[in-house]
Amino acid sequence: MQMNAASRQQLIDAVIKEVNNSYVFPDMAKKVETSLRHQQKRGFYDAIASAQQLSEVLSDELQATTKDRHLRVMYSEAVIAGRKSYDDRSPEEAASYLAMMRSNNFGIDKIERLPFNIGYLELAGFARAKEMAETLAAAMTLVAHTDALVIDLRNNRGGDAAAGLLLASYMFDKRTQLNDFYYREGNRTEQRWTADVVPGLRYGGTKPVYILTSKDTFSAAEDFTYALKNLKRATVVGETTGGGANQGDDKRLLPNFSLFVPLGRTISPVTKTNWEGVGVTPDISVCASDALRTAQLAILANIAASENNPDELGRLNERIGQLSERTTGRITCG
Asked: CA–CA separation, 215 vs 240, rounded Å?
């Protein structure tokens, strides 16, 4: 799609209007307006004829002003339908979404039992909690009897925060507050607690849990990690995460353009803040590629410290030696 002066003006006006109406930080929304108008006045956008390029340039400007990686303009070659909630979609649309989620196993990439009864669960994303619940319950039932659990979120860029809340509910024995969520609309705050009942077997609140992270871990995956870290329920191993704490929704601007705009922000009852712009800092900082090995070494060291059987201790030390030999030797992470 090619842009001209009139269509560029129309898009910029629409972006400014929606940011002012919806963005969680009204004062920052005014700064966005000032920045875009300044760039427009100096002719910064005048030579951009590509709709895709203009959406990318506007996204860069929005994020440079706000430091909010969630806030972005998106272009679609196909006309964007009027915004609907999931429950308002046609049966065909709902079936298409469900088929796509099923083909991705609702974000659950791998379930494994590692040596010495360590559970391993890799999640590439969080599908909608309602659709993900049955598959997640099956996964958690498979790892329920392990002695420690590693949850791999290194390639998880987020999704439905409610699915992260559901996963967290397996890690506690009693109802626990994870965070608060503030909405600009209505100036209201909503508390988010773990579920009283979960499908399948609960993992429980005492066995060790390790969460693996990378610089690509983002949004809902960070939400889950931040909550469990601050509640001392999990040890985070890997790299500082991407830093996106302001959750939102897509807003249709024009037939071929939409804006993902944060409508609220997460607030930890422990830290009274969140990870926006700074990421979740790991408890054990290592390159993402070394995180699984490092987590296993930490778990095995704890097991070995209380092991009294010489034969079992010998097997443990052998496994520790094998994992220790696999170090990458890198000083910086690539």
From this structure: 6
pLDDT in tens, 75-134: 998 888 765 555 666 777 778 888 888 989 989 999 999 999 999 999 999 999 999 999
Reported residue count of the chain is: 334
Which is nearest to 275 in space by CA: 321, 237, 222, 317?
222
- Measured distance CA(213)–CA(287) in Å, rounded: 9
Q: Residue 139 burial (CB < 10 Å; 0-12/13-18/19+)? A: buried
- Domains of the chain as residue ranges with CATH: 5-75 (no CATH), 105-248+262-292 (3.90.226.10), 296-323 (no CATH)
Global pTM value: 0.88
Residue ranges of E strands in 141-299: 148-152, 177-183, 188-193, 209-213, 235-238, 248-254, 257-262, 264-267, 284-285
